[in-house]
Specification:
The protein is mainly alpha-helical. It has 9 helices and 2 strands. A two-stranded antiparallel ribbon has the order 1-2. The longest helix is centred in the middle third of the chain and has 20 residues.
Length: 164
């Protein structure tokens, strides 16, 4: 396997186990006392770790070293499904910023996705565009000009949740 292929395989495998065990780059860097930029380079396939770091990662995830450095067909299927998702995101995006936002949101864990959604709703309200679900769980538009009371109630609720 070439050096670039090794980096790609390691990157794919590391990203898989980070996602599986719900660990982001910051958590991994903190827990293992490794620079964030090093973790970033590994997950992006720009660098390949020394054997001592592979052993450290394997121990951290309670897996074999081979699980990090060898091709794994199951991981390839999951990586391909992520590639398909990213392709769709790129086709739906109206501009580069929207594409980056959507791609990065898929990398967040569930709790952080909820936080981003709450903040997004707050900004949408500020610009007068707001979608919410009614009691039948259907999406409705709240018009900030014509339904001030409902609008202010929802805005207060979101701000309270963000400040928790």
């Amino acid at each position: 396997m070439s050096e670039s292929e090794s980096k790609e395989v390691f990157s794919r495998n590391l990203n898989y186990y980070m996602k599986k065990f719900k660990k982001d780059r910051n958590k991994l860097a903190h827990d293992l006392n490794i620079n964030y930029s090093t973790i970033r380079d590994w997950t992006n396939g720009r660098a390949y770790p020394r054997i001592d770091k592979i052993e450290l990662l394997a121990k951290y995830f309670d897996i074999n070293k081979a699980d990090l450095i060898e091709n794994n067909d199951i991981l390839l299927v999951e990586a391909n499904s992520d590639a398909v998702l990213f392709k769709h995101i790129r086709s739906f995006s109206k501009n580069e910023i929207e594409e980056e936002l959507l791609l990065k949101c898929t990398m967040l864990d569930f709790e952080n996705q909820k936080k981003v959604l709450e903040i997004t709703n707050m900004y949408l309200k500020e610009q007068g565009d707001f979608l919410t679900k009614d009691q039948n769980n259907k999406w409705i538009v709240i018009d900030s000009d014509n339904d001030k009371e409902k609008y202010n109630e929802i805005l207060k609720d979101i701000k309270d949740r963000i400040n928790k």
